[in-house]
Design a protein that fits this description.
Helix content: 25-40%
CATH class: Alpha Beta
Keywords: Membrane, Transmembrane, Transmembrane helix
Oligomer: single chain
Number of strands: 9
Strand order of the largest sheet: 5-4-7-8-9
Strand content: 25-35%
Largest sheet: 5 strands, antiparallel
Number of helices: 3
Shape: elongated
Distance between the termini: 89 Å
CATH topology: minor pseudopilin epsh fold
Pfam family, one: N_methyl
Radius of gyration: 23 Å
Organism: Leptonema illini DSM 21528
Protein name: General secretion pathway protein H
């Protein structure tokens, strides 16, 4: 009897199927790495989280909090459970950390000005309203993308570069010059 050489069609099909499955799994894993997300991806994810917080507040009829930690480069969404003796945070969206190439550079509000450090908490009231803010994303200190969140809009408005919302007076160049002067004072 002669020894068989090569692989049969079924064996080749099985090998190709296994290779395809392994490649698909590797591609899926690479996409999930935080370091591979671009600023545009981060801006879109931030806008979706903002929209989610607004809808959660409207649906539940309770205040929902969108919390951003500027130094830690993450954000989360929670509501307060006041059914017990002590109010307790109930997480709705776990902390989401930005990729290593991106950061929360600053948050600008018509009511509070520009905030570069600390923790910022936006309450979404039962009707879905919150304070109007603009969030600057980029590799600190450069700003690549601005995400505007108008007070009554359903989702954020994503723009390239550093821009101000329409509700804030002033020229963008004037604001940048003011920030440069403030940095020189320190």
């Amino acid at each position: 009897m002669k020894a068989r050489r090569g692989m049969t069609l079924i064996e080749v099909s099985v090998v190709l199927l296994v290779i395809t499955m392994v490649m698909g799994f590797l591609v899926w894993m690479l996409q999930s790495f935080a370091t591979l997300r671009t600023t545009a991806d981060e801006a879109e994810a931030l806008s979706q989280a903002y929209t989610f917080a607004r809808r959660a507040a409207i649906k539940s009829g309770e205040t929902v909090y969108f919390e951003m930690h500027l130094e830690e480069e993450n954000y989360s969404i929670y509501r307060m459970d006041r059914s017990g003796k002590e109010p307790e945070k109930k997480t709705i969206l776990e902390k989401r950390t930005l990729s290593s190439r991106n950061s929360l550079v600053a948050v600008v509000s018509p009511l509070g000005g520009r905030i570069n450090t600390g923790t910022i908490t936006l309450p979404f009231y039962y009707d879905g309203t919150t304070e109007e803010v603009s969030i600057y994303l980029g590799s600190d200190p450069s700003i690549d993308t601005t995400v505007h969140f108008p007070r009554f809009a359903v989702s954020g408005i994503i723009e390239e570069g550093e821009t101000l919302p329409e509700s804030m007076p002033g020229d963008d160049e004037d604001i940048r010059e003011k920030d440069r002067l403030e940095e020189k004072e320190f």
